[in-house]
């Protein structure tokens, strides 16, 4: 249910938590601010501006289990377009903010673009992790929750901007320049 429909429930006086520019939002948490759902579930906001400036990823922890809802920032094997941001912002979002999460954090992106992302990955990087992702994507409709931050670090070229093979494919060496060139290459596919 989108935030527009949530406005019909204002009489319930429930907070609508999200990015500052989302419709019907009543509260935008600060970067790394946490709140609880019930007694056990902890939710932490991770501001990841680039696709949109108010983009927030949500780290959700329940005991030892953790997932991150990445919206349009991180996709399995890819990342969102830089509609309102810069390569430097996406580099920070992916390679500092999200990459700092524990490797076993399961990834739930906002859209299922894995098959399209794999087509791009294979033009840049031909490694065993990329081949495994390609095989999984060919045999499964959905990939959300099947892969982790640790997996993304292995095959997602947008999270491998320091990899010499990725740098060679872009003709760049500075991580921010590599990020920008990768997005440009992906956009032109």
Describe what this molecule looks like in 3D:
This protein has 189 residues and is α+β, with helices and mostly antiparallel strands. The protein has helices spanning 3-6, 87-98, 114-124, 128-139, 149-155, 164-170, 175-187; strands at residues 34-37, 41-47, 56-62, 65-71, 74-75, 78-79, 106-109. The strands form two sheets. Strands 1-2-3-4-7 form a five-stranded mixed β-sheet. A hairpin with a 2-residue loop joins strand 5 and strand 6 (78-79). The longest helix is centred in the C-terminal third of the chain and has 13 residues, at 175-187.
Brief account:
By secondary structure, the chain is α+β, with helices and mostly antiparallel strands. Helix content is 35%, strand content 17%. The radius of gyration is 17 Å and the shape is globular.
Output the keywords.
189 residues, alpha+beta, five-stranded mixed sheet, 7 helices, 7 strands
Provide the spatial order of strands within the biggest beta sheet: 1-2-3-4-7
Distance between the termini: 32 Å
Instruction: Give me the Rg, rounded.
Output: 17 Å
Shape: globular
Mean pLDDT: 93
Order of helices and strands: HEEEEEEHEHHHHH
Strand content is: 15-25%
The beta-strand count equals: 7
Low-confidence stretches: none
Largest sheet: 5 strands, mixed
Q: Considering DSSP H and I runs of 4 or more, what fraction of the residues is helical?
A: 25-40%
